[in-house]
Amino acid sequence: MDKLHTIKIHEQGFDETYTVCAKRNGDGWSGWIQELPEVNCERKTKKELLKVLETELHKCLAVYKMEAEVWDKQFEADVKAGKLERFAKEALADFRAGKCEEI
Prior knowledge:
- It is a single chain.
- The protein is an alpha+beta fold.
- About 45% of the residues lie in helices and about 30% in strands.
- The chain has one domain (about 5-95).
- It starts with a strand and ends in a 7-residue tail after the last helix.
């Protein structure tokens, strides 16, 4: 089995460090981001592999950020429309009835 190489990439804006796992794969290299295994690829050189993985990581994080913004806007709209009021009342009633505890 080929040696597994790991490299850290710090992504500002997400305040996270991501781990690149890379290994020889025949004549080339294969690799992935440990924390986001959907970000993976194969390339002829390790340098090229690392460059592509970093680019794909940035794309993936941009999509996550966009999805989070859409979710936040929908949540705010639902709160303003009163769609979550029933859930808040149920949660308070359960808490007052001793069905849950503070964390």
